[in-house]
Amino acid sequence: MSVKSRNGKIRPSGRFFLGMTIIFLLTALLLAGCTSQKPVVVVPNDTIKVHYTASLASNGQQFESSLNGTPIEFVAGSGMVIKGFDNAVLGMSVGQNKTITVPADQAYGPKRQDLIITTEKTGSLADYEPKPGTITYITVPFPDGTVGRFPIIASNETTVTVDMNHPLAGQDLVFNIQLVDIVN
Question: Per-residue confidence of the chain (184 residues) as pLDDT tens digits?
Fold first, then answer.
């Protein structure tokens, strides 16, 4: 049966059939994923959740992981995490994994000699005697009300030397990052 009449025009029933065919084909294309949608990726100020493992670049020793716990949540590009990690998540999509090496200057900075302090043994340190194989920490209050805990790295009869650097200062770090969710 022809959809055209004798004068070459499409009959009303043919128009309906043609319209339904076009709608069917467009629906099939959409359902098949043939349309291109831009993937959602992390941009600055997105709140995101990631799982990660962290290790030292020098020897591969893992020192931290969220894999057996809750993913960390932070605002991308806000400085809530170290700079190299913050930069690495930008452009990632949910489910993506990435392994990056973060140089010390984008992690906890270089080890600074001005943060290695030698002080007199007074007060609670007056009787301090180092014990082989143990690390002793001292607590230091700061003007802003926070408190730091730092290791004593050397001692003699009259002084102790304290390292106030972050324990990972001067270290290049390797992170394996998995983007779990873009919250907003």
Answer: 555 556 666 566 666 766 667 776 666 655 655 555 556 999 999 999 999 999 999 999 999 999 999 999 999 999 999 999 999 999 999 999 999 999 999 999 999 999 999 999 998 888 888 888 899 999 988 999 999 999 999 999 999 999 999 999 999 999 999 999 999 8
Query: In 39-135, at which residue ranges do the beta strands (DSSP E only) sit?
Result: 47-56, 62-65, 72-75, 97-102, 116-120
What structural domains and CATH numbers belong to the chain? 1-37 (no CATH), 47-109+169-182 (3.10.50.40), 113-163 (2.40.10)
The pTM is what? 0.72
Question: Which residues, in sequence order, are CB contacts of 103 under 8 Å at separation 6+?
Answer: 84, 172
Answer for the pair 104, 172: CB distance below 8 angstroms, yes or no: yes
Percentages of the chain per state (helix, strand, coil), in multiples of 5: 20, 35, 45
| Helix and strand totals (H; E) in the chain | 2, 9
